[in-house]
Structure formats: C-alpha cells, structure tokens
User: Fold these one by one.
Assistant:
Number 1:
Amino acid sequence: MSISFPTRLVWRGDERYEQTRRETLWHAGLPNRFPAVIVQAIDVNDVVAAIHLARDRGLQLSVRSGGHSWAGTFLRDNVVLLDISRLRDFSIDREAMTGSAQPGLKGSELDKILMAQGLWFPTGHCTNVCLGGYLLQGGFGWNGREYGPACMSVIGVELVTAEGEVCYADEKQNADLFWAARGAGPGFFAVVTRFHIKVYPRSLVTMNNTYVYPAEVFEELYRWAHEIGRATPAEIHMMLLRDDSASTAGPITILSATAFAGGEEEARATLSLFEACPARKRAVVAEVNRPTTTVELTALGTDRHFDATKRYVADNIWTHATFDDLLPGLQQIVGSFPPAPTFMEWMNWGYDHEPPRQANMAYSLEDDFHFSLYTAWDNPADDAKFVGWTTERLRQLEPLSTGTQLADENLINRPVRFVSDENLRRLDALRTRYDPQGIFVSWLGRP
Ligand SMILES: Cc1cc2nc3c(=O)[nH]c(=O)nc-3n(C[C@H](O)[C@H](O)[C@H](O)COP(=O)(O)OP(=O)(O)OC[C@H]3O[C@@H](n4cnc5c(N)ncnc54)[C@H](O)[C@@H]3O)c2cc1C
C-alpha cells in the first residue's frame, strides 16, 4: 500500500522540510528534534500506508492531530511523523444523541456545530486544539466538572494498529484498546482515525461572572477558592488566572466563573457564590451575570492568553493539599513571575459527585485542584532559564501533588505520575501486546 498522494511525503533534506516541520507545532518554541519524514495523510489509507512505511524502514512512528501539545511530543528524531490534521469529517445523529468526529476537527468547530442544534459536548478552552490529542489525554472542557473529562463521553474509536490493521474498539470489541484510548494520551500505541461520542442537550443558559483583583488580594482570594473547593457547585466552571497581559496596572488575578444552568434564575443563584467572596469589594473590575456562550468565552476569553509567536513550556499538578502547605510554593511563583503573556491557572475541579463517575478507562488521576503554569518568552537563548523556572517551581510543589495532567504535561523535564500505578502497568502491558516491535513512540520522558 502506498501514500495516496506522494507529494504529501516530506523527507528530511527536502527543501519544504523545515517549513513543514515548523508548521506542525502551534507555538514558536520548535524543539530540536527531527523526524525522518513527515506524512500528511488525507485518509485512512494514508494512515495504513504510513505505518507500513515505518515498518519497512525500521523507523518508529509519531502522530500529530492539531499540534497543540505544549512539548511538541510528536516531534521525535528519525521517526515517521504522521500528520492527520486533514482528517476532519464529522456526523451528528440527533435521534441517537451520538456523533462521530475525526481527530483533525477542532473542539471549537464541534462546539459550533453542536450549538446550532442545541446540543453539547465538553470541548476545551482554546479554538485550535484538535480532538485527537484532547480526547486521548482526558479532555478538560467547559462544564467538565459535571460531565467529567471529555474522554468519558467517547463511546467508541476507529483505529489503525501497529500492524496496520483497521479496527473498531468499544466496551465490547477490542475493549483493551478502547480502555487505553481513554487516557493514554501521547503514549497511545495506535492511530485513532475517528471518535464516536455521546452528545447531550445543551444547557439553556450559560452565564459568566468575571472579576479582576489586584495582586495584593492574591492570598485572600486563593485561600477562599481553596476553602470553597469541592463545595463549588458541579455546574460551575471556575478558574483563577494570573495573566498580566490583561492589565496595564500591574499584576492581577482574574476570577472567571461560568454557570451552566437550566434557566437565568438558577444561573444567577449559582453565581451568587462569587458575589459573596470576602475579597469581593476589592475587585477593580466586575462583570456579573453576563449571558454568554462557550463559543464566545473561548474566542474572546481564553484564546487571549495564547500567543503563537512566543516560545512556551507548560507544567501542572493535581493536588488536595491544604492551602497553608501550598502557600509558600505559590508565593515563590508569584514573587518571581516571568513577564506577560506567561500565565498561571488554578481550577477548582473536584466535587462530591454521587455516584463516583470514574469509568473503566486508563484515565485515572484527578484531584480537588488543578494548578498549572504556562511560561512564554521570545529569545531561544532564554530557553533554559524559563524551562528551568517552570520545572523547578512545580518540582517544589511535587511533594504536595498527586500527579500531573497529560493536557499540559512536562514529562521530559519532570517525569511524574499521570495515571494510577495500576493503570500504568496495564498500559505498559498492552503496549507490549499491541505494539511488540515498538513502532509507536511512547510518552516523552519515558523510554
Ligand atoms: C493553547 C492551548 C489550550 C489548551 N486548552 C486545553 C483545554 O482547555 N483542555 C484540555 O484538556 N487541554 C487543553 N490543552 C492541551 C491539549 O488538549 C493537548 O495538548 C492535546 O494533546 C492537543 O491536541 P492536538 O490534537 O491539538 O495535539 P497534538 O499535539 O497533535 O497531539 C498530542 C499527542 O497526542 C497523540 N495523538 C494526537 N492525535 C492522535 C491520534 N489521532 N491517534 C493517536 N495519537 C494521537 C500523539 O501522541 C501526539 O503527539 C491546550 C493546549 C494548548 C496549546
């Protein structure tokens, strides 16, 4: 089997190679890792052909959907880099409340399609993240506390295995592969060519409160966010963000809380929690009870934090440590914070759900709070400085953490737990079974 369109093979040495490699990663910090060839697949036959190409040449294979891995985990030396961003087909079955989408479709595109039909799926907070990487690693989306990580709403996957075989996996068929596809993230050992998903009725009202607090309120605000912790209503999506690019008056913290509700009254009542924040009077800006949509929140809100002209490193922890234990580490971060658009995010994630929502899947690690750093800079000469700052700051919090989220992983610099120990053992065993020759690259930072 051969690639359907040979010009979509870009070998190292080809004059288009460096530009093509550059375009695989969304930000400017392109790692010095050089695939042997980049395959720009346009259909499943190309995916199968790329796997045979890797096998015939004795090369490993890495996969790219939307290129929004912070670490550029698909960029590896001397591999076949399979770019499946052109696989973008989707379908919705309103009767069955299901859908299917290929990995190159952006979450924001799916959100718009569903919004037009009054339907919902927990898509992520950035316009350009594609479903491929997002769904494999978990997927922390809008209203994700209520729906769980988005991979919980995946009901089947179409795959191409390391043998080049096209197959389907769900709870009943190839159940091991389905289990792994929900949580293995960048360590998955097959190519997903289509996700089958559940879709839901969309909440009638999406309402947002946004507050801007000056830097000196930092401790009081974070302490309060920690205090409300698991008691934050499940249908609230709440983030604290430090992003100094949003201010000309020095460091700030933005509190953004979005309620997904059945009606305006209910949304207002849920959001009243944030009006009761003890620091409320010190907010320098307050937008309260603003009707909105996730399409708007993504395009006008969260996208603003991401500047593709910068170099980035991200890292994160899950934690349920006490606020007093976390405080020294947080203070050190705030006291040495790099210039904008570096930002940090605190998310109240855990809540007392009943019954427990964990499904039978590789994804297995989450906690009450998620805390992450996204450090941005311009000059390649500063790489070591900013990667070092980010990694060290989170290493300091490591003893207080239960692990890391694969969405913002920094495993190459800080290899820590990202699924339960039991699930990691099962993932390793499944990799040996389904990919005995090690065709697929593994997580960066793990052999
Ligand atoms: C600006 C920005 C905002 C983000 N916001 C969120 C957010 O709100 N919520 C959240 O959960 N995450 C978020 N992320 C993290 C993001 O979900 C992950 O980085 C995800 O992997 C990106 O998906 P992608 O397809 O664009 O990435 P890619 O970089 O293309 O993929 C990452 C890795 O996943 C694997 N992979 C991807 N597609 C396939 C496939 N079809 N088959 C097999 N393996 C595959 C490969 O190992 C690949 O190296 C954000 C990232 C960025 C940069």
Number 2:
Amino acid sequence: MPVVVKKRLLDLIQDDHQNYYELVSFFLDGNIANIEKEKKSINLLKKELEQVCLDDVDFPDQIGDIKHWYLEENKKTGNAYQDYISRRQLSGQREYFKNIGQAFEFLIKVSPIKKVDGSWLYSIVNYWNDPAFHDLILIYLEELGLGSAKSNHVCIYDDLLRVLGLDDFELFLDDEYYHHAAIQLALGYAPPDFIPEIVGFNFGYEKLPLHLLITNGFVA
Ligand SMILES: [Fe+2]
C-alpha cells in the first residue's frame, strides 16, 4: 500500500474528531478495506450508543410482546393518517410543508440519508447461510432494487433530485445532516457483535411512518 494512502487511512481511523461528512466519505470510499471500515464503525457506534438516552423509548421489554406492540403502533399511525385526511377534507391546511420551497428544502436535507438507504443491512449478507437472516437479506435486496436500477432506492432518490434540479445541493448542508447517514453506514460495516443493534435499527426505521402515508397520499 502506498505510504500516502496508509497515512490517510491511519488518520481517518485514529481521528476521533472527524465530522460526520468525513465519516460518510470514509465509509463510501471504495479504496478503503472493509476491515478498516469495521474498526471505524465499532468506534463510532460505541461512542453513539453511549450518548443514547433510553428513558423515553417506548419498546416492549419482552420479545414475545413485540409483534403486538408493532401492530398497535401501525394502527395508531393509520388512525393519525385518517385524522389528517379528515382535517384536510374540512379545508384544513397542509401540515408538513406550507409551500413547494419547504418541500424542496426537506428533500435536500434528507438526501445524505436517502443516498445510503439500506446500507445498515450490508453486513447481514455475510450470514446468508443462516435462515434466521433471510428476511433481513430480502429487505436489503429490495432496497437495492432486486437487481433493477429502476427500483434501487438510492437511484430513485437520485433521479428525483435530478428531475427537480436539486442534485448537488447537499454539499451545502451542515454536518448534522450527515449524522444519520454515518450511523447507517457504520451499522453496515459493523461486526457480528452489533447484530442486535442492526436488527433494532431496521425495526425502527422500517416501521410505518405517518409522513410516508401523508406524502404518498393525494391530500398531502
Ligand atoms: Fe428504502
């Protein structure tokens, strides 16, 4: 390995003060070996997990209660959506974006996250021969578009930004907008010790959100 590349790698691995944009660039750099990304992911995830406050997290303690909790949460989201539709049908205002400029701003601000969509499941393909992971692998493959670029979630978002003339604006975003993307990528390169965190992240991230129903509906 050339000395310059080695030095850059060491800098990137050892520097605890890297910003999130640099971390995202690190994980996306195809010239950096996965083993180095794994080391970086362990450091980042440990640091992030130390800062997580679980006091207000509403999640069952018993594994057997999770399915019921999940269905109830979906029901609550469905009801909230019906309430929103009712308000709109009674001439209520749009509640997410007041104008198209606000909607465009949102699309740009979430683009660092959307551009790594599905990445948190990357390491799960290593366990392909264990049926326990097949559902997660299927979710990952769907994120990738099941072999079709037209259905690849990252490509879909890229196309959307391009069509709207919003591509490249994410380069002007503050570092905080890269925080979530850095965590997703770190989970993607995490070793088996972090499988519970990966599964938990998938659980939370794939849960039906109210904003998805509203932004896909005709009354948004
Ligand atoms: Fe997705």
